[in-house]
Amino acid sequence: MDHAYLPEPWRIKAVEPMSRPAPATLHASLRKAGFNTCLLHSRDVYIDLFTDSGTNAMSAAQWAAMMVGDEAYAGATSFYRFHDTIRGYYGYEHIIPVHQGRAAENIISQCLVWPGSNLPGNMYFPSTRIHQELNGGTFHDAIIDEGHDPSSAHPFKGNFDIGKLRDLIKRLGAATIPYVCVGATVNMAGGQPISMANLAAVRELANEHGIMVVLDAARAIENAWFIKTREEEWRDRSIAEILLAMCDLTDAATMSAKKDSFANIGGWLGVRSAELAEQARSKVLLYEGLHTYGGMAGRDMEAIAQGIEESVQEDSIRARVEQVAYLGNRLIAADVPVVMPIGGHAVYLDAAATLSHVPREEFPAQTLAAAIYERSGVRGVERGAISAGRHPETGANRMPKLELVRFAIPRRVYTRSHMDFVADSIIDVHRSRHRILRGLRFVHEPKHLRFFQARFEPMQGSELFADE
Questions:
Q1: Known InterPro entries for this protein (predicted)?
Q2: If you count DSSP H runs as helices and E runs as strands, how many of each does the chain have, helices first?
Q3: CA triplet 386, 390, 392: central angle to 5 degrees?
């Protein structure tokens, strides 16, 4: 018998109570948070789709593994299980633990990026780019044009435009490029994957010029699923085999284990070069802790090792991607503009299309995220001009082509009925979008990663929605 939507491949063994805040609470909480969903108290959020990072439900096996964590300061047994598991599934010879993904970005940027260097990539990610810029580098986008088009149905919108990449190398000079940074999947493009064929082409071009390739592997399992389901020659290969083949095309990887590995904290830097590994370990000693724990407890490393083994199970990744698609398809059926095709970890609303009457300078994505929270208690996050920040030299607001609101779905946390509530809430705001007359302006703007701590106020009055 065929089923349109298979049940989740797990049973619920423990529950966390949740309740929907009253409308007055939502109204007051949004204003106390300066119209920034990042600053809301979690107790005032009903369904939290702010991020899928560190918010996943761990399995019974992961909780059990934590109980045998070796908390020795140096050379803990848990580190060696962590190390060997990562090496087995991802293939990198040297594994350096860190407390989370952005720490790995910091370490590799300090090791490889210098003032005046250039970093091509398939669309930026805020924390990656800021670490590159703080070390004197400049990011250059080389993603295909479809990656910037919310309505394009291209199956691999995370692909590099090889012509653009080749031209960048020629124009900037290979000697100025320490590495090509590969997102898989590409978060800021809507969770869009890169194909194996395209990654191989990037590898070949980089080899021609002696340039390293560094993978952001946080959601590489999801990328492997899309390769399996969309790239014919990989259809009969396992997720574990595809993951390893992807990593084999790169020299190093940064990893936030808070994503694919189902962990609440932790990450790692994987490299092939012994020289780079030694340099990275010296940085970890300064910023993270000893090179055999890197800011994590032994129990965290045990949970990650077990989570990696669970992450490549095909029932698990299928259910994860299908849950995201279910939410996305409900919105599509209601004519809500979303990034197409639906990505692997989140549904992204096209705020520029929904609030087309709100000028980009009034931040329609930030406005839409705030409006959806105020009406429903559902928390998403802006992924547009606020996240893009300001140009480091001119100080002008960067205005990316994509002005999005992301609803990232934690793994193994919410059920289909939760997704129905989210869909109904977004559809309700979309249908009353004409009542949102103006956007938001800054009242407090931090220098770096401003979307986390910025505060706003409405451009007109004190309310987002005008009276009928």
A1: ArAA_b-elim_lyase/Thr_aldolase, Beta-eliminating_lyase, PyrdxlP-dep_Trfase, PyrdxlP-dep_Trfase_major, PyrdxlP-dep_Trfase_small
A2: 16, 14
A3: 155
pLDDT of residue 2: 66
Query: Measured in Å, how far apart are the chain's first and last C-alpha atoms?
Result: 49
Q: Which two tokens stand for residue 217?
A: 């592997």
> What pLDDT, in 10s, does the model give residues 68-90?
999 999 999 999 999 999 999 99
Residues 88-144: pLDDT tens digits? Answer: 999 999 999 999 999 999 999 999 999 999 999 999 888 999 999 999 999 999 999
**Contacts of residue 151, Cβ cutoff 8 Å, sequence gap at least 6:** 337, 340, 350
Cis peptide bond prior to 341, omega within 30° of 0? yes
Residue type, 169: I
**CATH for 23-52+314-458 (3.60.20.10, 3.40.50.1390, 3.90.1150.10, 3.10.20.30):** 3.90.1150.10
Rounded Cα distance, 80 and 280, in Å: 18
Q: Does residue 106 contact residue 287 with C-beta atoms inside 8 Å?
A: yes
| Predicted TM-score (pTM) of this structure | 0.95
Report the distance separating Cα 113 and Cα 177, nearest Å. 9
Task: Name the nearest CA neighbour of 195 among 148, 260, 242, 163.
Answer: 242
Mean residue pLDDT across the chain: 96
Number of CB atoms found within 10 A of residue 383's CB: 29
C-alpha distances out from residue 61 to 57, 58, 77, 142, 372, Å: 12, 8, 18, 41, 36
User: CA angle at residue 199 from 162 to 108, to 5 degrees?
Assistant: 100
Domain boundaries, the chain: 23-52+314-458, 60-311
Angle, alpha carbons 400-404-409 (nearest 5°): 135
